[in-house]
Design goal:
Glutaredoxin; Rossmann fold; 3 domains; seven-stranded mixed beta sheet
Length: about 625
């Protein structure tokens, strides 16, 4: 009876101790966490933590996830749990400044009405077509609101950046001011070549819709005050005063987006004055030399693989090696400015390279393919025939940098201020240089990325490339704080089976080879059939000849055989994956427990061997005393 009572009391004590430790952990140790994942996907970067320290007012975050409606959607639920965990990390590290609300917007509920008031996007992806919400609404003390309409699992690596950007915008609601320095006719007006009135360039209109835009030309002597982002497009003859203003703006930590060009094809004034027969290049050599940037304004990129098809003067279609379109393989998918883009078109790109004395950190945003070559810009400007241009091409099997992000420390390009400018405030260096360089300014022109049409008197622009998205992403990214810009791309939560993916790639390669054989045989057989039909048509008979019937029978037999081979390849793929899966199951279910048991038995034997002599010695001592 006493033993039973002791057992119950022990169990009760253990239960009380367990709940006490859980309560202690939740109350006192919840702020202390250890992230053991490879890419620290459950922790905040230094930039995000810095943004949290800048919060000076309460923020409310409303995380909407359709928990009940997504009951059988395992992948989405896992990602939602990951998003919620990261949001809880933000709230936990905000010193009480962020209050997180978890809401399940069921159909026809007040929570669903709240999600619609925020403007969140519901996707009809539920098992029975239900609307699924997976978004974030946020508000500050002034009732300013920001949202993430839907957390796309495909953009998982930028999850922390998007959340930190939302918080940064709430604590810094001031509208961004963009200063555009260019002499290009981006604002529209009368065309000096045709005399007609041109509409503003589409990118310029988009900037005006999103930001406060102040446009200045090369005749200015200083930059407007309050500039958040400086955008320079095709600078040619900047005065020392204006160049000094640009230099000092960047030395003071200002962010810049600079488009330079070895040959701009959209500069109407240069065409009017006869410069079209020669190169029409940008010039920022003084700044580039100081930053350690090489930009050869006398060389134009030719890319045979990325060349665009254009219509020639004779009406034919030919590939232009200087008019290029770069897709996902040539865009940096790890950078927020280019990760979501599919295509960027441009013309006569120039290339960048890093000087040996440069202390800046480079991150390539756009690069050419290895099927590239460089041609003299004057020679390129004089050649109008794409076919003649292709004859000058010779691949050097090298990728060239066409756009890059530069960060780090740099010195001023001016040893002293120009005459008449106050030198007391001159900055000599910066540790926070942050700018994006692009080796083409033609990509801003409408003809390379939008198609215009008239609809009841209104001009409708339809983009066919992502040039405008690239520009908006770059400005939006540069407009953030240094902490926001420094946030790394998050690691991915999903862990694919690399061996399985490798098996799939090998099998798909075999599949494509077999498919190519089938297609080739199909074309040969169709050609043979067409030839026989022409011969039959000449004879005036509509009856299928024995030769035609034999060709059809042979093709059908070959088609059956190759399709059987394709099925065998697919079956072998499934068989290899199943074999690998069985091996992993055997290791995890059988081998690992057996090894663990053997290890425990070995440890037990070692302990017994060490403890046994002690027991024997104790017995002998007792016998001696007796």
């Amino acid at each position: 009876m006493t033993n039973r009572l002791t057992t119950w009391l022990s169990m009760l004590f253990i239960a009380i101790l367990f709940f006490a430790l859980v309560l202690l952990n939740n109350q006192l140790l919840s702020a202390y966490r250890v992230d053991l994942t490879e890419d620290d996907v459950y922790s905040l970067s230094q930039g995000s933590q810095q943004i949290l320290t800048e919060i000076d007012e309460p923020l409310n975050l409303y995380f909407f996830f359709s928990d009940k409606a997504s009951k059988n959607m395992t992948t989405l639920r896992n990602y939602a749990a990951r998003v919620q965990s990261l949001l809880e990390e933000y709230a936990g590290r905000s010193n009480g400044k962020i209050k997180l609300h978890i809401l399940d917007p069921e159909a026809f509920s007040k929570k669903e009405d709240r999600a619609e008031q925020f403007g969140l996007t519901g996707a009809n992806i539920g098992p029975a077509g239900e609307v699924i919400y997976l978004g974030l609404g946020a508000s500050n003390a002034l009732d300013d609101q920001k949202i993430i309409a839907f957390f796309d699992p495909q953009q998982e690596r930028f999850l922390e950046y998007e959340i930190s950007k939302l918080i940064y915008q709430l604590i810094n609601p001031k509208q961004v001011k963009v200063t555009l320095l260019t002499d290009l006719p981006v604002a529209g007006g009368q065309n000096p070549l045709t005399g007609s009135f041109d509409q503003p360039w589409t990118f310029y209109t988009q900037l005006q819709q999103l930001y406060i835009v102040d446009k200045i030309g090369s005749d200015a002597s200083e930059l407007p005050k309050g500039t958040d982002v400086l955008m320079v497009a095709h600078p040619k003859t900047l005065s020392d005063e204006l160049l000094y203003a640009v230099d000092q703006y960047i030395m003071g930590g200002g962010r810049a987006l600079i488009f330079v060009d070895p040959h701009n094809e959209s500069d109407q004034m240069s065409m009017l004055t006869g410069s079209a027969m020669g190169a029409n290049s940008s010039n920022l050599t003084r700044l580039f030399d100081t930053w350690g940037v090489n930009f050869d304004e006398q060389q134009v990129l030719l890319d045979a693989f990325s060349g665009l098809d254009v219509r020639t003067q004779t009406g034919d279609v030919a590939r232009h090696f200087g008019f290029v379109g770069f897709s996902g393989n040539e865009l940096n998918e790890q950078d927020v400015t280019t990760s979501n883009l599919d295509l960027i078109n441009g013309a006569s790109f120039g290339v960048f390279s890093k000087k040996s004395n440069s202390a800046l950190r480079w991150s390539t945003l756009i690069h050419s393919t290895k099927n590239s070559d460089l041609i003299d810009s004057v020679q390129y400007a004089q050649m109008r025939d794409p076919q003649a241009l292709s004859q000058q091409y010779k691949s050097d099997n090298k990728e060239y940098i066409l756009a890059a992000r530069l960060t780090g420390s740099a010195k001023s390009a001016f040893d002293q201020a120009p005459e008449g400018i106050d030198t007391d405030k001159r900055l000599t260096q910066t540790r926070d240089l942050n700018l994006i360089l692009v080796g083409d300014s033609d990509l801003l022109s409408d003809r390379f990325w939008v198609q215009q049409s008239s609809f009841f008197g209104q001009t409708i622009t339809t983009p066919f490339a992502n040039n405008g998205d690239f520009l908006t992403n770059a400005v939006e990214n540069l407009a953030g704080s240094n902490a926001l810009i420094s946030i790394r791309s998050r690691g991915t939560f999903a862990r694919p089976f690399d061996k399985v993916e490798q098996l799939k790639l090998v099998a798909e390669q075999k599949f494509r080879e077999q498919e190519k054989i089938l297609q080739q045989q199909l074309e040969e057989t169709e050609g043979q059939l067409s030839q026989l039909q022409e011969q039959q048509g000449e004879g005036g008979s509509l009856v299928i000849s024995p030769q035609q019937q034999k060709a059809i029978d042979d093709f059908m037999q070959q088609k059956v055989q190759i399709r059987k081979a394709l099925r065998d390849v697919r079956h072998q793929l499934d068989k290899d994956i199943e074999k690998l899966g069985n091996l992993l199951k055997f290791v995890n279910i059988v081998l690992a427990p057996v090894l663990l048991v053997l290890l425990l038995m070995l440890c037990r034997r070692l302990l017994r061997s060490r403890y046994k002599p002690t027991v024997q010695t104790s017995k002998m001592s007792k016998e001696g005393q007796s």
